[in-house]
């Protein structure tokens, strides 16, 4: 096996089509990807394992993305957060970034842009 383990990404996204697309393309880049379909299971997964990145939808069933972001930032270990959301207003973007997100993408987004942003966060 290589000298470095593949990066681990947690995708927390309730839209099944988007989630499956994200998982497929992120795995194509050689990264390990776990998927959570709601906020509660996403938060549990983030607490249980160490991830190199969390791709986080803002509007989720159960615990919402801003709450998850806030709780991840309150933890001891820093993990980069890329927020993805249908909310495109400047206020929502600013709020997401102020809550601790490292980057922000609005739906619909191109998969190539998402992959490029993930790579940038890993640098």
Strand order in the largest sheet: 2-1-3-4-5
How many DSSP helices? 5
Total beta strand runs: 5
What gap, in angstroms, lies between the N and C termini? Answer: 22 Å
Please tell me how large the radius of gyration is.
Answer: 13 Å
Shape: globular
Structural class: alpha/beta
The level of helicity is 40-55%
Write down the overall mean pLDDT.
91
Q: The biggest beta sheet, please?
A: 5 strands, parallel
Strand content: 15-25%
Order of helices and strands: EHEHEHEHEH
The low-confidence parts are none
Ordered list of secondary-structure elements with their pairings:
Elements: E1 8-12, H1 16-28, E2 32-36, H2 39-48, E3 53-57, H3 65-74, E4 81-85, H4 90-98, E5 103-106, H5 111-122
Parallel strand pairs: 1-2, 1-3, 3-4, 4-5
Helix pairs in contact: 2-3
Describe the structure.
With 123 residues, the chain is α/β, with parallel strands linked by helices. The chain has helices at 16-28, 39-48, 65-74, 90-98, 111-122, and strands at 8-12, 32-36, 53-57, 81-85, 103-106. Strands 2-1-3-4-5 form a five-stranded parallel β-sheet, sandwiched between helices. The relative contact order is 0.18. The model has no long low-confidence stretch (mean pLDDT 91).
Features:
123 residues; alpha/beta; five-stranded parallel β-sheet; 5 strands
Brief summary:
With 123 residues, this protein is of the alpha/beta class. It has helices spanning 16-28, 39-48, 65-74, 90-98, 111-122, and strands spanning 8-12, 32-36, 53-57, 81-85, 103-106.
